[in-house]
Amino acid sequence: MTVDLVVRNCTVVTPAGRTPDAGVAVEDGEIVAVGRSDRLPDADRVLDAEGNVLVPGIVDGHIHNREPGLEYKEDWESATRAAAAGGVTTVVGMPNTDPVIDRPDHLELKFERGEASAHVDFQSYAVVTSENLDLIPDIDEAGALGFKIFLGSTVGDVPPPNDGEIIEAMEKIQETGKRLGFHEENGEIIDHYTEKFQAEGRNEPIDHSHSRPVIAEREAVERMITFAEETGAKIHMFHVSSGSAAEAVARGKERGVDVTAETTPHYLWFTEEVMREKGNPARIQPPIRNAAEREQLWRVGIDDGAIDSIATDHAPHTPEEKKVDDPFGNTWEAISGFVGLETEIPVMLTFVDQGRLTMEEWVRRHSTRPAQIWGMYPRKGSLQVGTDADFTIVDPDREWTLEDADELHSKNCVTPFIGESFTGKAVATVVRGEIVAEDGNVVGESGYGTRVDVDT
Ligand code: DOR
Ligand code: ZN
């Protein structure tokens, strides 16, 4: 038997463990065998992984791809180019585009644009506002991966529904079987402190962080968990930034609520001191927290398991919008968010190198769990025979420093990770049996990526 592709000479790592001297065989875009290199079939194409580590394709359940409407920041092509270069095989786009993804036709437009230009596989969330509760079944039919509510004001200014509407949305979404995720910050608290600080002339980047205190996040998590306990809804907490919020998630799980949670590499890597060191480029919502909150996030979230998944919150903006030329200038004139697709794997591998989590635990949180949470498993997030041949090959020993934004592939590459040093990097990205990137160079075709169909 001769198959299309065989990858040999790697250590295969899944949450279940690691197999040295192993590899994967692919036929028609699907995995047909995983096992010892010397037992794999012959292939038309053989990729020698040179002793590196092969893991199921990394799934990023939280990116802002900006298309439709905000293509001056990023589009499907550039976001998925960055994903491919960074080792990410599936991405899920956020709905705060222009128009916002709040109707079936807007979702269809977003899918069409992705089909035309994506390098890796993709999906999208739809937003729920006061205006579209009745459309939830139609949006579900149109194929949204899940739903999102923005509880507090953030980029895009999508207004939050009131608490009654949120409960109704949970009931309607529960009927679809899908999950509802939140931007969980209490809007009244952050609006109050934002206005107060602005009136007092507190305009430094760190003031932006303090205007969105941990209590705003913790309260929003606890309120949504209470609503889900009542309605039975499946809920998700996007970008959990603090140990206090992770603790609230843990208590919700103990109470039997179907609540999942993600955090991002930047909350695990930096403390709020980064706002004093790097200024507005590090501005993000929710903000990067103090050292005590970060340690608690590690302990409760990663060590004890309250955090299910890792995602980037890849949020490109132009250097002007980020005030790159005036990093410590008036923070209220700067925008929140920065790119992450090409640093997420290096950050996580650096933590693995430091012994802060095992390679298996990293793979579980960065591939298996996001695929399971959003209903894409085992087609995505596994190396099971008969599923999509998506995998990421990483060199866990590669030491490197991100010197310059030019090394990245997004349209706009502002990130506080410039100047940071890592141990580990993706060296090949394979989507449905096609090599889409090698050694940081994108070699796949724009338009190869396809929507992950979750309804079939
Ligand atoms: O910092 C952020 N940027 N937080 C969000 O909630 C949205 C995101 C964006 O779209 O830029
Ligand atoms: Zn986001």
Automatic annotation (TrEMBL):
Catalytic reaction(s) noted: (S)-dihydroorotate + H2O = N-carbamoyl-L-aspartate + H(+)
Residue positions, PTM N6-carboxylysine: 148
Residues annotated to bind substrate: 64-66, 96, 317
Record EC number: 3.5.2.3
Keywords from the UniProt entry: Hydrolase, Metal-binding, Pyrimidine biosynthesis, Zinc
InterPro entries listed in its UniProt record: Allantoinase, Amidohydro-rel, DHOase, DHOase/Allantoinase_Hydrolase, Dihydroorotase_CS, Metal-dep_hydrolase_composite, Metal_Hydrolase
Residues the record lists as binding Zn(2+) 2: 148, 183, 239
Known role: Catalyzes the reversible cyclization of carbamoyl aspartate to dihydroorotate.
Name by which UniProt lists this protein: Dihydroorotase
Naturally occurring in which organism (per UniProt): Natrinema thermotolerans
